[in-house]
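Weekly structure sync, notes
Attendees: PL (lead), two postdocs, one rotation student
Agenda item 3: pending single-chain targets
PL asked that the sequence for the first pending target be pasted directly into the notes so everyone works from the same version. It is reproduced below exactly as submitted, 221 residues in total.
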Amino acid sequence: MNIIENKIYTTKSAYYYSIGLPTNKIKNIWFVFHGYGELAKDFIKNFEILKKDENLIIAPQALNKFYLRGFSGKIGSTWMTKENRESEIEDYVNLIENIYNEISKKIELSKIKMNVLGFSQGGHTASRWLGKNPHPINRLILWGSSLPHDISYLSSLSYWNDLNIKIVIGNEDRFITKEKLDEELIFLKSQKINYELISYEGIHKIDEKILKKYIRTIKVS
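Predicted structure, written out during the meeting:
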């Protein structure tokens, strides 16, 4: 018996969370992408320190949710898995683009600074969105993450090198060891990507003190 995989498109509710209001006072927009096992409504709390009239923070929620332990209790989410990988990437890229378009109807984005921050799995998510939709971004921050290897950077190198890429890595990050980081830096060199590497003493986590010290000192806000 032959098993045939069939693909259809269907309507699904999706969510994003925000801090601030889309008014004419906005000077900076932050698109922030959570990591594996997190929820956007919790992740966005890391950025409450940026709560100002001129800042709008947007946190898209990954479409795939699951119980972190067993069949009840705390819930997390993931942007994608290896199952139907390309379709899941397509789905979340379309979700983020829809959010971007909704915000652009309320604010003239050409007049403000756009910052994109992706933590862990969210770093690849943010990068793939920009790879498919090369919007003008003032700064791309990959925290506990790096650029995914499935994008053709050399064919659009001027765009990527205009993004002012910051790679922020903790020295005790169990997912990005020194060996893993060395591999990523070799890849970036092979792709001729310009970036700034920012190291801090800490683990695979966005910490408020670290955010204040390192993100504000690079003049993101």
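Discussion points:
- The first helix runs from residue 40 to 43.
- The helical segments are 40-43, 85-104, 121-132, 157-161, 178-190, 208-215.
Action: rotation student to compare against the earlier draft before next sync.
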